[in-house]
Amino acid sequence: MTLVIERVLAIFLIVTGISYGLQNVLWKDLIKELLEKPTWLILWSILFLPLGLIVVIGHNIWVFDWRVIVTILGWLVTLKCVLYLLIPNWANFVRQWSDDFLQRYIQIAGVIEAILGVVLLFLSF
Question: pTM, whole model, 2 decimals?
């Protein structure tokens, strides 16, 4: 089960990371819209919370190697979803970011995410 979680997460990171890089304007617009309507954040959190919990429950490996990255990502997704469900406006600070800064942030996050996905995919085979 843990190997499946590692590989699925790796592919997800690669695809979304590339998408962040290539479609950063669309992602910026999506983030801005989500922050304007917290009800959408609640919906996204309801959809992603089970995925984070699957990683936390099915891959709760705390060892000093690359597999701990998957565990940490699972906990981060779970925590973020819980925060959005309990305090939907907790990320309002992002509203203050300029469009250019947000686009650059998304691009950089995409590169980091795609590289992390490639590394995880390589290590999981």
Answer: 0.86
